[in-house]
Automatic annotation (TrEMBL):
Protein species of origin: Catenuloplanes niger
GO MF annotations, alphabetized: beta-glucosidase activity
EC number annotated for this UniProt entry: 3.2.1.21
Lineage, broadest ranks: Bacteria, Bacillati, Actinomycetota, Actinomycetes, Micromonosporales
Residues the record lists as binding substrate: 20, 121, 165, 288, 400, 407-408
Entry similarity comment: Belongs to the glycosyl hydrolase 1 family.
Listed name of the protein: Beta-glucosidase
Keywords: Carbohydrate metabolism, Cellulose degradation, Glycosidase, Hydrolase, Polysaccharide degradation
Length: 447
């Protein structure tokens, strides 16, 4: 087998997030989070699944780290459960909760794996949500204080940090719609959520720098958006959708300002944009599939096109992306879209820091013989290499995900892992894709 090859120093990683893997929802002083509340509501998650146990990474982390390390993985991207460390989001630290991450970091380092933690991956303490959640500016300052707590305890061993994950998804799915926690359904009234998360990012960068962090970045979801036709109304609808999902979040971080027409709708105060645009050491890109948009037609049913349904009355509507193949989640497999978004970022932002693909992967439900995942990963890594050949400065690639886990509103039915987790016994089994990833890493040139 011929593997795509990358320059010496290119980093290969695996990724997970706290709520999706840890379980132990009520152990050792952990407080309730918004996903604990959301999944307790009937009908919110496929098959009534929840993350109370998840895949029990909280108790099985040593076994999981051994699997991750045995593949030769350079980096492990994980996230912190905010309510595990600060049960109400602020106030005294829950020592057993922080101790867990201390043990996890030490376990990774003992196996030669670099920890790359994400401070916030959608696991907001319920107490903060009750006080307004991301609609409240106070939440941004609370996250910065959380970052300082983490850096104070772990900064002697953790040198690479990610502030927030996919602010666009938290805004759209959790606050504009009702598909993810906290399920507010506010439509365009959710826009302040975007600004407060961006402010939290900037404040967290400041806190991490003050604690001596060597490398700081953010993980953003990005995808090409194309109009369904050349008609003016379809082009305008696609441009608006791209602005709201891509550039509303990237422009403030990488340009220091919001896209035209949006700044006046956001609760921006003096100094906010300077804080948000603090220089970064890398910019993380999460890519899964492109999106195709048209101006809504009154006679069409747009349900089931995206992972979440865009409600009627919006000025844009999704249509299926033409694709020869789809994942078991129904997502279009378009590796060239990753090349496109990486080069688009390079062209749009002259001062763009180095890029890392912080998530890329697919749901295929085969337990172990997952040749389709191997083909998917191989094609997307070749797409990264194409972007690099075109001038994009990409320094790493992380597979989503290390293990099968709780896939948010889709529950346990969707399987993204390189390592199979039996839903009944929680036994771990390395899939064919794990072995392929190990061999890929071993084939890379050495410096």
């Amino acid at each position: 087998m011929t593997f795509p090859l990358f320059p010496p120093g290119f980093r290969f990683g695996m990724a997970t997030s706290a709520y999706q893997v840890e379980g132990a929802f009520d152990r050792d002083g952990k407080g309730p989070g918004i996903w604990d509340t959301f999944t307790a509501r009937p009908g919110t998650v496929r098959n009534g699944d929840d993350g109370r146990v998840a895949i029990d990474h909280y108790h099985r982390y040593a076994e999981d780290v051994a699997h991750i390390a045995a593949a030769g993985t350079h980096d492990y991207r994980f996230s912190f459960s905010w309510p595990r460390v600060l049960p109400t989001g602020t106030g005294p630290v829950n020592k057993p909760g922080l101790d867990f991450y201390d043990r996890l970091v030490d376990e990774l380092l003992s196996h030669g794996v670099r920890p790359v933690p994400t401070i916030y991956h959608w696991d907001l303490p319920q107490a903060l949500e009750d006080a307004g959640g991301w609609l409240s500016r106070d939440t941004a300052y609370a996250l910065a204080d959380f970052a300082a707590v983490l850096a104070d305890r772990l900064g002697d061993r953790v040198h690479d940090w990610i502030t927030l994950n996919e602010m666009s998804v938290q805004t759209l799915y959790g606050y504009a719609l009702t598909s993810h926690a906290p399920g507010r359904g506010l439509g365009f009234d959710a826009l302040p959520v975007a600004h407060h998360q961006l402010l939290a990012h900037g404040l967290a960068v400041r806190a991490l720098r003050a604690a001596g962090a060597a490398t700081v970045g953010v993980a953003a979801q990005h995808f090409p958006v194309e109009p369904a036709s050349a008609a003016a109304d379809d082009v305008a609808a696609a441009e608006l959708f791209a602005t709201l999902t891509n550039w509303l979040f990237a422009d403030p971080v990488l340009r220091g300002g919001y896209p035209p027409g949006l700044g006046d709708r956001l609760p921006v105060r003096d100094g906010d944009l300077e804080t948000i645009a603090a220089p970064l050491d890398f910019y993380g890109v999460n890519y899964y599939e492109p999106t195709r948009i048209e101006a809504p037609r009154p006679d069409r049913d747009y349900r089931g096109v995206l992972e979440v349904d865009v409600p009627a009355g919006m000025p844009f509507a999704p249509v299926p992306v033409p694709a020869a193949e789809r994942t078991d989640f129904g997502w279009a497999i378009v590796p060239s879209g990753l090349t496109t978004i990486l080069t688009t970022l390079r062209d749009r932002y002259p001062s763009l820091p180095p890029l890392v693909v912080t998530e890329n992967g697919a749901s295929f439900r085969e337990p172990v013989a997952d040749g389709r995942r191997v083909a998917f990963l191989d094609a997307h890594l070749r797409a990264v290499r194409d972007a690099m050949a075109a001038g994009a400065d990409v320094r790493g690639y992380y597979v989503w995900s290390a293990l099968d886990n709780f896939e948010w509103a889709a529950g346990f039915e969707e399987r993204f892992g390189l390592i199979h987790v039996d839903p009944a016994t929680l036994a771990r089994t390395r899939k064919d894709s794990w072995h392929w990833f190990r061999d890929l890493i071993a084939a890379q040139p050495r410096s």
